[in-house]
Design brief:
- This protein is of the alpha/beta class.
- The chain has two domains: about 1-30, no CATH class; about 30-205, Carbonic anhydrase (Beta-carbonic Anhydrase, Chain A), CATH 3.40.1050.
- Helix content is about 50%, strand content about 15%.
- It has ten helices and five strands, in the order ααβαβαβαααααββα.
- The protein has a five-stranded mixed β-sheet with strand order 2-1-3-4-5.
- It is globular and about 55 Å long.
């Protein structure tokens, strides 16, 4: 790719925005007040704002391989804390996607070096749900289901955090699990029952 094209695209984007709203960048410079935190995959096909039809300032975004929420990952935990406690977002979304390379890599026995400890978290999801997954004969369907179950478990990991528990208590923050279908472009709501999962884990994970 010719990087000069990127800067040309940027100039065209600026012109388009100013043509629609001369104060666009003045308003953008005054700060952000997003209602959504989007935790998605780093996959180049999954562009958070674009697939939701949102623009600058409307969504706070964190992306990593396979949309993981790992308690000892200071990056994602810092994003969650900042978005929930300081930006006061009302919704936290974990969005996976079908054909996720991270999920597929986790199900291979190959030594992937530094990726091994990261992918082990996905293997743990498989271990928790192995009876269901092993009952699926079609490999494509099995990977798709693991993508969905991984989203669910990352939502549970969010619910375990003090920031999310406090925000739910104080202002009824919601956690959502979605999947992006790269074959159709559709967002699929997995209908994560946030309150049910919160009740299920409170005995162990309750934080005042």
């Amino acid at each position: 790719m010719d990087l000069n094209r990127v800067f040309a695209n940027n100039e065209n984007w600026i012109k388009e925005k100013l043509a629609l709203n001369p104060d666009f960048f003045n308003n953008l410079g005054q700060g952000q007040n997003p209602e959504l935190l989007f935790i998605g995959c780093s996959d180049s096909r999954v562009s958070a704002e674009e697939l939701m039809g949102l623009g600058p300032g409307e969504v706070f975004v964190h992306r990593n391989i396979a949309n993981m929420v790992i308690s000892i990952d200071l990056n994602v935990m810092s994003v969650v804390n900042y978005a929930v406690e300081h930006l006061k977002v009302n919704h936290v979304i974990v969005c996976g996607h079908y054909e996720c390379g991270g999920v597929k890599a986790a199900m291979q026995s190959a030594d992937l070096g530094i990726l091994n400890p990261w992918l082990r978290n996905i293997r743990d999801v498989y271990r928790i749900h192995k009876n269901e997954l092993n009952s699926i004969d079609d490999e494509g369907e099995k990977y798709d289901r693991l993508v969905e179950l991984n989203v669910k478990e990352q939502c549970v990991n969010l619910i375990k955090t003090a920031a999310v528990q406090k925000a739910f208590r104080d202002r009824e923050l919601k956690v959502h699990g979605w999947v992006f279908d790269v074959h159709t472009g559709k967002l699929i709501d997995l209908k994560i029952d946030f309150v049910k999962y919160l009740k299920d884990i409170m005995e162990i994970y309750h934080l005042d």
